[in-house]
Specification:
heterodimer; A: mainly alpha; MetI-like fold; B: alpha/beta; 2 domains; 4-stranded mixed beta sheet
């Protein structure tokens, strides 16, 4: 009897959250999945199943093709830059400098700001200028420094639009990556470095053969976190640029909002959601598998 | 102490009931919730003019001004749609008259017919046929239009035109002559802002209208004229040529930011809806002239904001009273004066409106009326969204055959429905 209750109680306690998550997360994911196979591309719900028709149309849609390319460019630039800048900052901070706390918080601060706020600020900074005001923001800075060749249209230039958005996102998240790496660096026992130093390794060799391999799990985790942020990015783009000229700043999430609520294509919106989910699972599933392996 | 308080309370409530009763007996009370996307400048002032009239007539109704910000109503529409589909409709909501109203709300059965109201208020006589057409479906009327805007207007800077002795071009050949002449003088011939994605589609609908004429333009949206028509190709080629005369920073600017070129005498012409007139007034610019966009004299490309009555709204009587205010002479006069548009009714005295509005009102009475597509009158929201995307891409990548193919595919898909 006693044993039974011991087993029952935890189950009872966990049930509410299991049920809520089951309905509101997995239930709605399945519902979205179902909608994506229906004909509901008008205001009135229409649950006639049409197979993969919505997906076929989506991949033939020029806006979606541009979106996928933008997502790829954005993800690659965003993740790699965040990792490099984050690691660099963490190594600097790890040099036992004075008032490390101040710098640490300074670098972390951007993450505390909402995407909408930083989106608006970066829109001002990257403003291409106008006939009334001349160069403003970053372009003005370049002009004052005599670096006129660097001024450009930023998010209004179809060729580099998405990169301007990526810069804003990098600004926001490299501090966070730094915190991850800093925690990783502090977790490496000092004995290992000392031992290798005694064995005659120079600074660079210590980094290359000792520290980087030990930071690998951190890098892996950071890629997962940054990658899923970049795939679901929406608010930053909306606040900063919108779709941009020729959809150069457009992302799938923005297209999903537009097509669902402006165009009433509910089924098409659902299929974009499912594709985003699949893309994110490409990142998350290997991570989950490796975590399970470690725990087993 | 407590007893005193209680006595006072009883007395106060008795007095209150005494005064409240006659009011309750003869007028409305409760709430009315009006959803719109009028949050900025003249629009908000127009809405406030209407609210003032309503509140003076029905002082006991609590007016809830539920506006949702966002250009062309994108965000507002997302909110209405969620509420309508979820079975919690607002009392009334703003909607573009035409296909946006009919295809999105009337055909699926979300709104109530207003035919009785039209008859009792005499609107069937005071509004022109062109307006009645775009708010009706299967013999019933479905929303109350408050204003009319014209889409096909060519605005120009008078100083520049006088200086170089230019007369407003009435067809495309003249238009391009003017463009070449101005370009040689270092002036931006034609300005456009394409930041929000709909502006290029707006200019292109005027080009289409100029190339096809009122009837065949309308035919594009009803399926009587095919999008593979050579005149559509011609319109796309013409539009690509227009795009070659543009200000280079168009993708960074909204339409009014682009209008700054006209204000500074640095740009000569732009095609934009006649809210431009209200904007010129608000920035104190008077040196402008207007003409129908090339080849569209005698055609009025129209759009109209209207309000519909959802099924299952909670304050039916109060909303009907609001709709009456919208359709009244007084309401239409006050709203349109502030917003800078013309009344949908043709019997409103607008002698103190500005010159542009007076001329627009005159054209409105005699011109052929065509529906605007970017502003919801000519096609369903799905179709007009796709049209807008295609043209928006076309400005940066002017590939005529690709764009026409995309337009044909979109038309096939939406005409099938």
């Amino acid at each position: 009897m006693r044993l039974k209750r011991d087993k029952l109680m935890p189950i009872l306690f966990i049930m509410p959250s299991v049920i809520t998550v089951g309905v509101f997360v997995y239930g709605f994911i399945s519902w979205t999945g179902f909608i994506s196979f229906t004909k509901w591309n008008d205001v009135l719900p229409n649950y006639t199943l049409i197979g993969f028709e919505n997906y076929r149309k989506l991949f033939a849609n020029m806006r979606f093709q541009i979106d996928l390319r933008n997502t790829l460019v954005f993800t690659v630039i965003f993740v790699i830059s965040c990792l490099l800048i984050g690691l660099l900052l963490a190594i600097f901070l790890d040099q036992k400098i004075k008032s490390e706390g101040i710098f640490r918080n300074l670098f972390l601060l951007p993450m505390a700001i909402s995407f909408v706020v930083s989106g608006v600020i970066w829109r001002w900074l990257f403003n291409p200028g106008s006939i009334q005001l001349g160069n403003i923001g970053v372009n003005q800075l370049f002009e004052k420094l005599g670096l006129n060749f660097l001024t450009c249209g930023w998010y209004t230039d179809p060729k580099i639009g998405i990169i301007a958005v990526a810069i804003a996102a990098i600004w926001q998240f490299s501090g966070y990556t730094m915190a991850l790496y800093l925690a990783g660096l502090r977790g490496i026992p000092i004995e290992l470095r000392e031992a290798s130093a005694i064995d005659g390794a120079d600074k660079w060799q210590i980094f290359y053969y000792i520290i980087f391999p030990l930071l690998r799990p951190i890098t892996f985790g950071a890629i997962i976190i940054l990658g899923h942020i970049s795939l679901k990015i929406f608010d930053l783009v909306v606040a900063m640029t919108g779709s941009g000229p020729a959809f150069s700043c457009d992302v799938p999430a923005l297209f999903m909002y537009d097509t669902t609520f402006r165009g009433n294509h509910f089924a098409q919106g659902a299929s974009i959601a499912i594709i985003l989910l699949l893309l994110i699972s490409l990142l998350i599933i290997p991570y989950l598998i490796s975590t399970f392996r470690k725990e087993a | 102490m407590l007893r005193k308080l209680l006595t006072a309370l009883v007395l106060v409530s008795m007095v209150a009931v005494f005064f409240a009763l006659p009011v309750l007996a003869e007028s409305l009370s409760g709430k009315v919730e009006v959803n719109s996307w009028w949050t900025a400048g003249g629009e908000a002032e127009g809405l406030n003019a209407l609210i003032k009239i309503y509140e003076s007539k029905y002082p006991d109704v609590e007016f809830i001004n539920a506006t949702v910000a966002g250009g062309a109503g994108t965000n507002a529409k997302a909110v209405f749609k969620t509420r309508m589909l979820g079975g919690d409709p607002p009392d009334t909501f703003q909607v573009h008259a035409g296909h946006e109203l009919i295809d999105t709300w009337v055909v699926p059965g979300y709104v109530q017919p207003l035919t009785d109201l039209y008859k009792s208020e005499g609107w069937t006589n005071s509004m022109p046929q062109g307006v009645l057409d775009i708010v009706s479906y299967q013999g019933d009327y479905w929303s109350v239009p408050v204003n009319i805007h014209r889409s096909n207007v060519l605005w120009f800077n008078k100083t520049i035109f006088t200086k170089y002795e230019i007369t407003p071009p009435s067809n495309f050949d003249q238009f391009f002559e003017v463009c070449d002449k101005l370009k040689a003088k270092g002036i931006v011939p034609f300005v456009m802002g394409t930041k929000e994605g709909w502006e290029a589609g707006h200019v292109f609908e005027s080009v289409l209208l100029g190339k096809l004429g009122a009837d065949d333009y309308k035919g594009l949206w009803t399926g009587e004229v095919k999008w593979s028509d050579p005149r559509v190709t011609d319109a796309l080629e013409t539009f690509a040529k227009i795009a070659s005369y543009l200000n280079t920073d168009h993708s960074a600017l909204t339409w009014d930011e682009a209008g700054q070129y006209l204000l500074k005498d640095k740009g000569a012409m732009m095609i934009m809806g006649d809210w431009t007139n209200g904007w010129f007034m608000s920035v104190g610019f008077e040196d402008y002239g207007w003409a129908p966009s090339p080849n569209t004299a005698g055609i009025f490309l129209a759009l109209s904001d209207s309000f519909a009555l959802p099924k299952g709204c909670k304050n039916q009587e109060n909303v009907v009273a609001w709709l009456k205010v919208l359709g009244s002479k007084e309401g239409q006069y006050g709203f349109n004066k502030a917003k800078g548009s013309i009344p949908a009714r043709t019997d409103v005295d607008i002698s103190d409106y500005n010159d542009y509005l007076k001329s627009a009102a005159k054209d409105w009475q005699k011109d052929a009326i065509s529906p605007s597509v970017v502003h919801g009158a000519a096609a369903s929201e799905g179709w007009s969204t796709e049209y807008k995307d295609i043209i928006s891409l076309f400005v940066s990548k002017p590939d005529v055959s690709y764009a026409q193919k995309a337009l044909i595919t979109a038309a096939e898909e939406y005409l099938k429905k």
